[in-house]
Write a structure and sequence with these properties.
It is built from 14 helices and 10 strands. It is of the alpha/beta class and 325 residues long.
Length: 325
């Protein structure tokens, strides 16, 4: 993609409120070949909003990294890229896929799939404003009557984008609707730029199946990485060997969860860091025995040390239960 060469083809998807620096660092440690920031508002960057600017910051250990932006005004999107370029990310990604109400009400994200002329102006403005490789992420369309992913891919290619990610659900679809991988395959056949596939990848065989069935150049993992950052190393191993790594033990899951919590506290301080971790701890513990009681306890704790002690007590209890049985 432009002057960016990646070592592999398993990526962490940009997820608002989730893919902060601590999560990205963990994903990289487990082998993610490319990570993204949370979605960043172009208008917020143009206004110099402190909270928006904070979303841009990343460390060298997170490279290669993409910054994902959204907005509905070509000039603002171009100006945002000039702000972003000062931090020298490895790529800039334009979001045309976010289905969230507060984003689409501002004509951002997936709302632009209803106005391809404006979408084209945005892609053109962004690619002209930066020498950083530009990529595009899109949903299949606004609804099932308006599937436009192929048109978006051709616009992106024509405007100089270096790659496109296709999440084959519409804005109106919820996650109970199966992702239409056939659409990824159709896009791949029609454009010359790299095509990344996203949607319904929760296991290593899922990733291989998407690559094999669609011919896409890379897979992007979103929900499948929640409470499961080791999925990247599992996929890499499966693609290389055809065999699956064992799932982490209960002790290992908790160790990784606590490592994540430590990174969050280091980045944001104890008060904010632990509160940010609550959703992650819910995902990490989801399939653990007696997890509800564990979550009820750790969610009330105010220090990282108390959280560590709570998990240690939990492990001891589970060990005693197993020995009794």
């Amino acid at each position: 993609m432009g002057n960016l060469i990646l070592s592999g083809n398993v990526f962490l998807a940009p997820l608002a409120g989730i893919t902060d620096a601590p999560f990205r660092i963990l994903a990289k440690r487990f082998g993610a070949d490319l990570v993204y920031t949370e979605m960043v508002s172009a208008e917020g960057l143009c206004r110099g909003n402190t909270d928006t600017l904070r979303l841009l910051y990343f460390g060298e250990e997170e490279r290669p990294i993409g910054v994902q932006i959204f907005g509905s005004h070509p000039d603002n999107m171009a100006e945002a890229c000039r702000v972003i370029d000062k931090l020298k990310p490895d790529l800039i990604d334009i979001n045309f896929g976010c289905p969230v109400k507060k984003v689409v009400q501002r004509n951002g994200g997936a709302a632009l799939l209803k106005d391809l002329k404006l979408l084209e102006k945005i892609v053109s403005a962004v690619t002209r404003s930066t020498k950083t490789p530009v990529t595009v992420k899109t949903r299949s369309g606004w609804d099932q009557k308006n599937i436009v992913a192929l048109e978006v891919a051709k616009i992106a290619q024509g405007c100089g984008a270096s790659a496109i990610t296709v999440h084959p659900r519409t804005q109106k679809d919820d996650y109970s609707v199966k992702a239409d991988w056939d659409l990824i395959a159709r896009v791949k056949k029609e454009v010359n730029i790299p095509v990344f596939g996203s949607g319904d990848i929760f296991t290593p065989p899922d990733a291989k199946n998407m690559l094999d069935l669609t011919g896409c150049d890379a897979v992007m993992i979103g929900r499948g990485a929640l409470g499961n950052p080791w999925i990247f190393s599992q996929i890499d191993h499966f693609l290389e060997s055809g065999s699956q790594l064992p799932e982490p033990s209960l002790e290992e899951r908790i160790r990784i969860c606590l490592e994540h919590a430590g990174l969050s506290v280091k980045e944001k301080g104890e008060y904010v860091g632990l509160r940010t971790m609550r959703k992650h701890m819910a995902w990490y513990t989801m399939r653990m025995p007696r997890s509800k009681e564990l979550r009820q306890k750790v969610f009330t704790l105010e220090t990282l040390e108390d959280v560590r002690c709570a998990f240690e007590d939990y492990l001891l209890l589970q060990k005693n239960i197993c020995e009794t049985v």
